[in-house]
What we know:
The chain is α/β, with parallel strands linked by helices.
Amino acid sequence: MNKNLTKIIFSILISIGINMLYAQTTIAKNNGNWELLVDSNPYEIKGVTFGFNKDIDNYDTSFKDLKFLGVNTIRTWATGENTPKLLDAAHANGIKVMLGIWMRNGRPGMEDDDSFNYIENTKGKEDMFQNAIHVVDTYKNHPAVLIWGIGNEVYLNTATDEEKLAYSTLLERICSAIKQKDTEHLKTSVEAWTFGLDWWQKHVPSLDIYGLNSYGPSANLLEEELKKKGINKPYILTEFGVTGEWDIKQKRNDVIVEPNDTEKYDTILNGYNNWIKNKSKNLGVFVFHYASGNEFMAPWLFTHYENMTRPQYWAIREAFTGNKPLNTVPKVINFTLPNSKFQSETWIPVVLETKDLENDSLEVNFGYNQRTGSRKRRDQINPLHYRGDLVNGFEIQLPKEHGAIKVYVYVKDSYKNIGIGSTSIVVLDENAKNQKYLVPKVSLPFYVYKDGDNDPYTASAYMGNYKVMTVDTQHKTEVHSGKAALKIEYKQEYDWYGLGLVNHANDWGDILGGYNITGAKKLTFWAKANKKDVVATIGFGLIGKNKTFPDTAKKSYRS
C-alpha cells in the first residue's frame, strides 16, 4: 500500500474518532414544549450543583453515588486545576457537566466578597474574556461537557445600571466569541430569580438558554415571568431547594426561623414534580447542593452534614427515581427552649422529641450559631456543652455570647443519617456585649497559612513594587513542613515589595473580617531566602486606625 495513502486513511480515522468524542447539544421546540437534545435525543437535566470539587481521590465514589440518586448532570461555577480529572470521572460514570466560567461580582454578594468595576477595569474585563475563551478552547472537545455556564448572579451583585450595561456588553462579547469557537455546545448565564431577564433580552442575544436560581415555591412562577416579558427562550433552574433565609420573614428572638427537615424534603420532591418538570420552557433543574459541610448553610441546603446524609439527599433520589429512602433520616418532632433570657454559662432544659422509623440507636448533640457580625462569624456553628440522654432529657449550657443565638440539635442514626432541628434563645453576657468587632472564635493553634488550600486568610494584599512580584501559594519544591509553602519571587534588584494575608480577600479594612484569636501567645513561622543579606519584616497587623475595621493588634519583626 502507498505510504501516503496509509497516512490519509489513518488521519481520517483519527478525525472521526475525535469528532465522536463529544456530544452535540441543541434545543428544539416540540408541540409547544422546549427540549434539550444531546445528539438529537431528548435530555432532561436531573442535576445537582457539585461541591466536592477538591475531593479528587473520591470523584469516582461521588459520581457513582450521584448515579444512585438518579442524577445525570452536575453544575460547577468555575474551572480550576482539578477540572480535567473531574470531567474524566464524570464521563466515566455517564454524567454530564454544565461547566462554569466565572465572572466577577460588581460588589460583595451572597457568597463572594469580591468587588469589581465593570466600567473602569478594562484589564480585568479582558482577563475574564481571555479566561472564558481559554476554558472553551481547553474543554470543548471533552465528552462530559453539556453546556457552558457563564457567570453567577452578577446582576444581583452589581450596583448601578451603568455597570450592569458594561457587564452585559462583556457577556455578549464572550457569548459571541464562544459561538464562533464551539458550535456543539449551548451557552447559558445564571442569575438570581429574574434579575437578568431584561438585560439578557436586550443586550445579550447570543445566549441560548437562561439560567435562573430560585428557591421554594417561587420556582413555580418563573415560566410566567418569562411569558410576561415575551421571552421565547427556554430556561434551566440552575439552583433549587427549600426557601432560603433571604426570603423568609418569620422570626423568633429576631432570628429567622429555618424550615424543618420535612419541609426541606417535601420542597425538593413536590417542587420537582409540580413546579419544574411540567413547565413548557423548562429544560431541567440543579438541586443545591451536593456537598458536605459544618457551617450555617449546610443544615439548611446541603445533602450532607459532616459527611452524614440529610433529608435533601434522599429527596433528590425520590424526585429523580421515584425510590424511597433506604433508611429514613431521624425526625426532630419537637425542639424547644425556654422562652426567656438567661445569663451565659447557665444550664437550661431542652424539650426534645424525636422519631426514627427503623428504631435505630440514636446519638444526640447540640451546637449554636450567631446571626450577627462578620460573614465568617455568621457562618460558624460552634459546639455546645450538654448533659443528659433521650430517656431522661437534656440540658445545654449557654455560651459566653450576648444576644440572640440560633441553637441546633443533631440526631444521628447508625446508618449515617442526621436529622437537624433548630430554634433560638437570648443570652446575656456583659463582656461579650462590649466586644467591638464580632468575628469568629478559633481553636488554637490557629494556622494563618497551611498548604495554601482553604486557608483562613488570602494572600491578596500586594504592596510596594508588586508589578515585578509573583506569588505561589502552593509551592511544592522546598517545603519546611506540610504539603506546600508560600513562595514570593521578586524580579528586581532594588526597591521593596510586600505581601499581606487578609480576610476578606482583597480587603483593606472596609469589610468586617478577621478572627478572634484570644488566648494566642506567639506567632511562629519559618522563612528561607535564596541569597544573603535579604532584609525582611514579618509580623501581624496591617490595617491602620484610619480604616473602618482596623487591626486590633500590631507587631512586626525585622531580620
